[in-house]
Amino acid sequence: MSGTRRLFPYPADDHDHHDDLNNLGLQADTDMLLRTVVDRRRVLAMGLLGIGLLAGCGSTATPSGGGTTSDTCPDAIPTETQGPYPADGSVASGQSLNVLTRSGIVRSDLRSSLATGNVAAGVPITLTLKLVNVNSSCAPLSGYAVYVWHCTEGGLYSMYSSTILTEDYLRGVQTSASDGTVTFTSVFPGCYSGRWPHIHFEVYPSLASATSAANKIQTSQLAMPEATARAVYATSGYSTSASNLNQSSLASDNVFSDGYNTQIPTVSGSVSAGYTLELTVGLAL
Prior knowledge:
This protein is an alpha+beta fold.
């Protein structure tokens, strides 16, 4: 497992979530910046050979997102704080809520509330995560469980934010298929004050173990690509998110500021048709 990155304080108030090869040209500079910190060090240590690889191979990032695609082997995704609103049985925000034990939580469509039947509004997304073992040539990991959760278009979290305490939408669990993938249907998350737009997830060794945070083997977050976020936030329902995004950046975010290359998914689609987000998640098992 990769080391846990530093944790940052989160607020108790659920309405306020303040919670290197020089002179090689623009392409080389861009390629280097898109690499992880560990990868940059490897390239620099290789000297001229590294320069050749950098110039010849380029980056696996794409203009639409920059995430790692399914035909590449990424570095292990970093461990991140689970945040203050996980509802995974751990003590957070002074509570120990646990949606993982609720009937129906194993589902692909996260938009409706199991508790009330109400549906979360927002631009639709299809999120596919591919779990691979970076210590085994990135072999796909089958039979693992992934719990995903994120905020609403307005930046609130079900089960915690005062206006949606009785809702449990935008939370759900899926088991990875033989190719290591899990797929969820949801809505594009909003941007609340103090954080870059993101999606939380936890990985469990099996579906049977995905009932408590005590059994998780990884916790991390996905960073939403800026261009996509701006397109979404120009639509009705995301006005507050648009304003908050203008006051935020990946460089200043308290989770992503120390690196995020392995955490930005590739994106395709449009506001009208919905978006597809894909990311290969490397786990060091």
